[in-house]
Amino acid sequence: MGPTSRCEYRFLQRFPVYQVRFLAISVIFGSHAIPVSLMDLGFGTHGVHMDQRLVKLVATLSLDRTSLSITAPPSGRHFPPGPAFLYVVTDAGVPSFGHRTIIGTGASPPVDHAAIAK
Fold this sequence. Notes:
It is a single chain. The protein is mainly β. Helix content is 4%, strand content 38%. The protein has 1 helix and 10 strands; from the N terminus they run ββββββββββα. Strands 1-2-8-7 form a 4-stranded antiparallel beta sheet, with no helix packed on it. Strands 6-3-9-10 form a 4-stranded antiparallel beta sheet, with no helix packed on it. β7 and β8 (67-71) form a beta hairpin. It is globular and about 60 Å long.
């Protein structure tokens, strides 16, 4: 692949737990430093675009430069549970296509029934 080629990767899964290194993906190009970003593209309503978020993740490239181990965001304050897109960037600054994943379990947040009763 040339210096301006997009990075491709496989085997993307959910980030079920915060602050855990567990995701390993196969990278289909050789590189030295790979920034990885998690992004919520937000939503638009009535001309206002809200809920955008970008978090750079800790990633470690294997010695043979073919697989990447990524650490999930530290907490829900950094990236709340829900859908996200993962981008891997090459040495030349060319991003991969965004792959959709889920942060957290996908379950609804806890309900405070005492607060509802008041």
